[in-house]
Amino acid sequence: MSKEKYHKARKRFGQNFLHDHNVIENIVANIQIEPDDHIVEIGPGKGALTKLILLSGVQLDIIEIDRDLIALLKQKFEAAENLQIISADALKFDFSSLPQKNEKIRIIGNLPYNISTPLLFHLFENFSCIQDMHFMLQKELVERVCADPGSKKYGRLSVMSQFYCSAESLFEVDPGSFTPSPKVLSAVVRLVPHSQPPVKVKSIINLNKIVTQAFSQRRKTLRKSLKPLISEEKIEALSIDSSLRAEAISLNDFAKLSNSL
Ligand code: SAM
């Protein structure tokens, strides 16, 4: 009996397996794999993307949480010499342990939608060892990552993503491309860590603190939402209008606010 056919998708692991070959090929084409690349795939599932990437001959590490899928992947790809199969929770995994010498890793994945946001934040912590990331996410999440100030989608995820990376939405994917079909539209995003930070920040912890606080009450003005951290006078002294809401504040102004803490 084929293990692949009889693996029942597990909701708790956000399993929606890609079966649409056009989408699989489009994702891999967008990664533009080079011979010396070291690719890391999060959540390989039954290996839809894995199989195609292996053909390029590059070093590929795959990280999967579901032990049944690990067994299936070991069987399916036992002959692959350029593959390392890692049985682990990507949320707890130390990605900085993977690069060899001075190389940077390229991370890809059709991510489990239930953990995408914490996973992105976990990866941002390791951004210095990452060359780029290509992820399938909920379309809504991709819009939030890429949103500009003034947009309803602009929030903590937008500010922190754009602090670490440049973000580009590549293409949308219909629910029918997956088994089982998710209830939402999906999209593929490219994230490239900045070589130089786009703004000067004394402490990333403080930036995160101020952004989290500002968006925790996003309908309130800055003078109210930031009151526990910074006074109205201090906000105005930075030439920032304290009657604005968080969604109007640029990354540059968030940096100024955090540097004054
Ligand atoms: N890449 C496959 C595909 O496109 O068909 C599967 C994608 S499926 C949306 C997400 C995959 O991530 C599943 O295989 C699931 O078991 C795995 N996964 C879920 N949570 C994980 C975690 N914390 N760490 C590693 N893998 C995880």
Structural description of this entry:
With 261 residues, this protein is of the alpha/beta class. It folds into 2 domains: 3-193, Rossmann fold, CATH 3.40.50; 204-259, Helicase, Ruva Protein, domain 3 (Orthogonal Bundle), CATH 1.10.8.100. 34% of the residues lie in helices and 20% in strands. The protein is built from 11 helices and 9 strands. The strands form 2 sheets. It has a 7-stranded mixed sheet with strand order 4-3-2-5-6-9-7, with helices on both faces. Strands 1-8 form a two-stranded antiparallel sheet. Helix 2 (21-31) crosses helix 3, helix 5 (116-124) packs parallel to helix 7 and helix 8 packs across helix 11. The chain is elongated and about 65 Å long. The termini are far apart. The mean pLDDT is 96. The structure holds S-adenosylmethionine. S-adenosylmethionine binds next to strand 1, helix 3 and strand 3.
